[in-house]
Specification:
heterodimer; A: mainly beta; 6-stranded mixed beta sheet; 5-stranded antiparallel beta sheet; 11 strands; B: mainly beta; 7-stranded mixed beta sheet; 4-stranded antiparallel beta sheet
């Protein structure tokens, strides 16, 4: 059974810092891994999608890496801003399944 | 492109009433997925549907919950005789009809927040 874990559960950093969020999964048989952002009381916004054959994806100040063999992904946020404050969710799509398996999320706070 | 549309955004029901949640997928998407997010928990898969077919309902509670995706109209998640423990955010996602299995991500709606009083 695929399980996804995100560490830390919460993170608070000063504005301007670079930071890394971690995601680990127990079964390397995945189609892809997706990072989402969720603002309080809102829906999910897709940030980055990494296919199983890829090592990383970049979008603006965000960079996501994938090491499928070790079951790990990281989301790197450069030059953090208060507007980056949100919960970040990692989800994998297991091979043979149409559904996503989510981690519990990391609640990020960027202090001005 | 309007994205995935869910309504209502907020729904309040008394214990024992029925709740109906609606989801219209993105244009061109014929695969719909429902997820539930309980307070302070992650999203959990409930059910996957294609038009007129339930493909995977392994995450659905065995009683009181049902889902449909008719040929015409939105997908409906129906909860009968709601209890306080059903209070949660319910999210719908959609994905394209075709394409390599690994090539697409999911687009989520804004969710319906159900409160049972």
């Amino acid at each position: 059974k695929q399980e996804v874990t995100q560490i830390p559960a919460a993170l608070s950093v000063p504005e301007g810092e670079n930071l890394v969020l971690n995601c680990s999964f127990t079964d390397s048989a995945i189609y892809n891994l997706q990072w989402f952002r969720q603002d309080p009381g809102k829906g999910l916004t897709s940030l980055l999608l990494i296919q199983s054959s890829q090592r990383e994806q970049t979008s603006g100040r965000l960079n996501a890496s994938l090491d499928k063999s070790s079951g790990r992904s990281t989301l790197y946020i450069a030059a953090s801003q208060p507007g980056d404050s949100a919960t970040y969710l990692c989800a994998v799509r297991p091979v043979g399944a149409q559904k996503l398996v989510f981690g519990q999320g990391t609640r990020l706070t960027i202090n001005p | 492109n309007a994205g995935v549309m869910q309504n209502p955004r907020h729904l309040v029901r008394r214990r024992g009433q029925e709740a109906r949640l609606r989801c219209s997928p993105m244009k061109g998407h014929s695969h719909v997925y429902w997820y539930r997010q309980l307070p302070e928990e992650g999203l959990k898969f409930m059910v996957y549907l294609q038009k007129e077919n339930i493909i995977d309902e392994s995450g659905m509670p065995k009683e009181r919950f049902s889902a449909e995706f008719p040929k015409e109209g939105p997908s409906i998640l129906r909860i009968q005789q709601v209890v306080r423990g059903d209070s949660a955010a319910y999210f719908c996602a959609s994905s394209p009809l075709s394409g390599e299995a690994s090539n697409y991500g999911y687009t989520f709606g804004s969710g319906t927040r159900l409160t049972v009083v």
